Amino acid sequence: MKTILYIVWALFVAAAIFSLVYAARRTKRQSQQMAAWPKAQATVTGSATRWIGGTGGSSRNLRYYPTYQFTDPRGTLFMGKSEISTVEQPAPGSLIEVAYNPVNPNESLQVSSEPRTVMGCLIAFFAVFAVVSFWFIGVFPLG
Predict the structure, then answer these.
(1) Which of 23, 80, 82, 110 has a CA between 20 and 30 Å from the CA of residue 90?
(2) Would you tell me the crossing angle of helices 2-36 and 114-139 to the nearest 10 degrees?
């Protein structure tokens, strides 16, 4: 029976590692792109909302994704939606920094260190969870 638990544990750890590596590569790729892209001050025009959570008995939370507009050096107006959510609804008219693709300014991303911070926390959490769950399987009384 413990063999089955260890197999399930190994599959979970493999899936978590795969997901974390995929997310870390995506975050790194976006950071490298944004480093080369020009930056602009964007004006928040509103926000898109989305419910997150609500699984496993947890409560659902409403998250806000700012929508914004900015101008390039030629004065052309572009719009975008942030991939970074906030708990509080952003105030229309407030400023955020965005990086935009100079070849296609319709492709823009909000500048923030939050994704890297979240990745660091997730890696630490899953590492501790994997060690604790491995230990728990070893001491779990079966039989």
Answers:
(1) 23
(2) 170
